[in-house]
Design goal:
With about 350 residues, the protein is mainly alpha-helical. The protein has helices at about 1-35, 50-65, 70-80, 90-110, 120-130, 135-150, 155-185, 195-210, 220-255, 265-315; strands at about 40, 45. Helices cover about 70% and strands about 0% of the residues.
C-alpha cells in the first residue's frame, strides 16, 4: 500500500507538469495562428481576434485554476517570439494571466455551466467572461506600453480598445468551441446530415460573397446564424460564426470587399462591431433555443409521468416510483463550474 501511495504521489507532479506544458503549447499555437492577421492602431500592432485568450479561459474552466502557470508560460513564449524580453513583459504577462483567471472567477460566481445550455450561461460568458474580465488585460497591456514610452499617451484609448476587443472576441468565438469539443462524445450523431451539408455549402458560398462584395452586404450572414442556431443549436451557430469571423478578418486586414477604402481605425471599428454582434447573436440565440427545448422536454416528461400515475391510481394500484432523471440533458456537466 505504501508503494502504491508513493507512486501516486510521484505521478501527480508529473501529470501537473504535462498539463501545464500542454496548456502552454496550445496557448502558443493559438497565438501564432492569431498573429497571421494584424492591424496597426495608434502605432501599436494588434490582432482583431486573439485566440489564446479563448484557449486560456477554456483551459481554466475545464482543467481548473491550477493550470494558470501554463497560460503565463505560453504568453511568455508568445511575447518572446515577437520582441526581446524586457521589464515591460512582466506587465503584459500579468495582464494576460490575470484576465482569464478573473473571467473564470466571475463565471463561477454567476453559477456558469460549461454546457452553455441556459440563456444565463450565454449572458455570463458574454458580459462577465469576455467584455468584463478582458478589461484587465487591455489595461495592463496598454498601460505598460505608455509607461515604457513605446506608446504616446494620446494613443492609450485606441490601443486599449483594440486590445480589449481582440481579447473579448477570442473568448466569444474560441471558448464556446473548445467547450463543445471537450463535451463531444463519439460516435457523433448523424441526424439531419443532409440539412447540415446544405447549411455548410450555403455558408461557404454566401459568407465570402457577403464579405468580399464591394457593396456592404455583411447583414446576409445573420440568416445563416439564425438557421444554424435553430436547427443545430450551439454547435451550428458557433461553427458558422467562426467561419464568418475568419473570412471577415482576412478581408479586413487585406482592405478588401466591405472594408475597402477605409482607414485603419474605421476598419477596426467596423470589423469588431460586426464580429461582436455576430458572435453575440450566435451565442445567445443558441443558448435560448437550447434552454427552451430542455424546458419542453422536462414538461413532456412530467406530463408522461403524471399520466402514468393517474392510470395506476384509476386501476387501484400503487404508482411506481421513478429514480431522479437529468431534466436538463447536461448530466454531471450541468453543475456549476468548480462544484464538488
Amino acid at each position: 500500500m505504501a508503494a502504491v501511495v508513493g507512486f501516486e504521489e510521484l505521478r501527480r507532479p508529473a501529470g501537473y507538469a504535462v498539463r501545464t506544458l500542454a496548456v502552454a503549447a496550445c496557448y502558443y499555437a493559438a497565438a501564432r495562428l492569431g498573429l497571421l492577421r494584424e492591424l496597426t492602431v495608434g502605432g501599436a500592432v494588434f490582432t482583431p481576434i486573439w485566440p489564446p485568450t479563448g484557449v486560456a479561459v477554456a483551459a481554466l474552466l475545464i482543467l481548473g485554476l491550477g493550470c494558470w502557470p501554463g497560460i503565463t508560460l505560453g504568453a511568455f513564449l508568445s511575447v518572446l517570439s515577437l520582441t526581446p524580453p524586457g521589464p515591460e513583459v512582466l506587465g503584459v504577462l500579468a495582464g494576460n494571466t490575470a484576465a482569464p483567471v478573473c473571467a473564470v472567477l466571475l463565471l463561477r460566481r454567476a453559477g456558469f455551466r460549461t454546457g452553455l445550455g441556459r440563456l444565463r450561461d450565454g449572458l455570463s460568458l458574454v458580459f462577465l467572461g469576455a467584455l468584463g474580465a478582458m478589461v484587465v488585460s487591455a489595461t495592463f497591456g496598454a498601460g505598460v506600453l505608455v509607461l515604457k514610452g513605446s506608446l504616446p499617451a494620446h494613443s492609450f484609448w485606441p490601443v486599449w480598445f483594440a486590445w480589449w476587443v481582440g481579447d473579448a472576441m477570442g473568448v466569444l468565438i474560441v471558448t464556446p468551441l473548445l467547450l463543445l469539443l471537450h463535451q463531444a462524445r463519439l460516435p457523433l450523431p448523424l441526424a439531419r446530415w443532409k440539412e447540415a451539408t446544405a447549411l455548410t455549402v450555403v455558408t461557404c458560398v454566401l459568407v465570402p460573397l457577403a464579405v468580399y462584395t464591394p457593396v456592404s452586404m455583411l447583414f446576409l450572414v445573420y440568416p445563416l446564424i439564425i438557421w444554424a442556431a435553430l436547427r443545430f443549436q450551439l454547435v451550428g451557430s458557433v461553427l458558422c460564426a467562426l467561419l464568418t469571423s475568419v473570412v471577415a478578418t482576412v478581408a479586413a486586414t487585406d482592405g478588401a470587399g466591405a472594408f475597402a477604402g477605409l482607414n485603419r481605425i474605421e476598419v477596426m471599428v467596423k470589423l469588431q462591431a460586426f464580429n461582436g454582434a455576430m458572435a453575440l447573436t450566435a451565442l445567445l440565440l443558441s443558448a435560448l433555443i437550447t434552454e427552451q427545448r430542455q424546458t419542453r422536454r422536462s414538461v413532456e416528461q412530467a406530463c408522461q409521468e403524471l399520466a402514468e400515475v393517474l392510470e395506476h391510481l384509476t386501476a387501484g394500484e400503487t404508482p411506481p416510483t421513478r429514480p431522479p432523471t437529468d431534466t436538463d440533458g447536461l448530466g454531471d456537466r450541468s453543475r456549476p463550474t468548480g462544484a464538488p
